[in-house]
Design a protein that fits this description.
The protein has 5 helices and no strands. With 163 residues, the chain is an all-alpha fold. Bound molecules: zinc ion (2 copies). One zinc ion (ZN) binds next to helix 5.
Length: 163
């Protein structure tokens, strides 16, 4: 077992913390338990979002915390966590959208280089609302569009951010 290669539960927390990382007082310790607890909080918020759009702000904060934890300690997230959290984020987008007044949208075709004609995460078909592109994901040849419903782009696919 290589200790430096796989920062796992017990050793990594204290051993790998650098003084710079401790600078922000807001940061809480990241471990398997805190990751699981945060994912569960997110799951509950997504369940509630079916009946009420009021969870939106709280859900955004939760997403912020999850992304921060992932940035600090990606090793505490399993592949299944990553997949699950992204599925939940897709549901959240769809459910919040369903609370808004229905509006007809104009479908748009795939552009050159687009793999799908819908959002990979929440499955919203590409329409006139897909106007924003992500600087982080975009190259000269291809500009990643940000989903207006669930904010997905290539960042999550490439795991530059968790969700
Ligand atoms: Zn989406
Ligand atoms: Zn991106």
């Amino acid at each position: 077992m290589s200790r430096h290669r796989a920062p796992r539960a017990s050793s990594s927390r204290s051993a790998e913390r650098k003084p710079a990382a401790a600078a922000s007082p807001k940061k809480r310790p990241v471990n398997r338990e805190s990751v699981e607890a945060e994912i569960e909080t997110f799951r509950q918020l997504v369940i509630t979002s079916r009946d009420s759009p009021k969870v939106e702000a709280e859900a955004e904060k939760c997403i912020g915390r999850l992304n921060e934890m992932f940035e600090q300690q990606p090793a505490f997230f399993t592949e299944e966590d990553v997949r699950f959290v992204n599925v939940l984020r897709g549901f959240l987008g769809e459910r919040l959208e369903a609370h808004r007044p229905p509006v007809a949208h104009r479908r748009r075709r795939k552009r050159e280089g687009d793999k799908f004609d819908y959002c990979w995460r929440c499955k919203t078909p590409i329409d006139e609302r897909f106007t924003e592109t992500c600087e982080t994901c975009s190259t000269k040849k291809f500009r990643w569009m940000i989903c207006p419903v669930c904010k997905a782009c290539g960042c999550q696919r490439g795991q530059k951010v968790l969700v």
